[in-house]
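Intended use. Records like the one below are meant for learning the mapping from a protein sequence to its folded structure. Do not use them to infer anything beyond what is encoded.
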Amino acid sequence: MSATTELAELYDLIGGLRRCVTSLKSRYGDNPAMRRIVIDADRILTDIQLLDTDMSELDLERATVQQSSEKIAIPDTEYDRDFWRDVDDEGVGGHSRY
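Structure written out for the chain above:
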């Protein structure tokens, strides 16, 4: 499925969502919960429009990923201890100093 088709489907779906929200709003009135739902539906539409604009500007449909068939050999030998001397594990704290 192309990005254009997916965006068209998203626009159709958000259109249906907004119709349902309008119907619910007429039934339940203007209250905080309903206002949040209306705002969320509008935000989703805005996000879809931004995605559509970004895709047009970046021309993502024609972007191609080139894969290299070149393999990089990584040795199984251990690294020298000096390589890790001043390195800390994020979120874990520092290594004990040797």
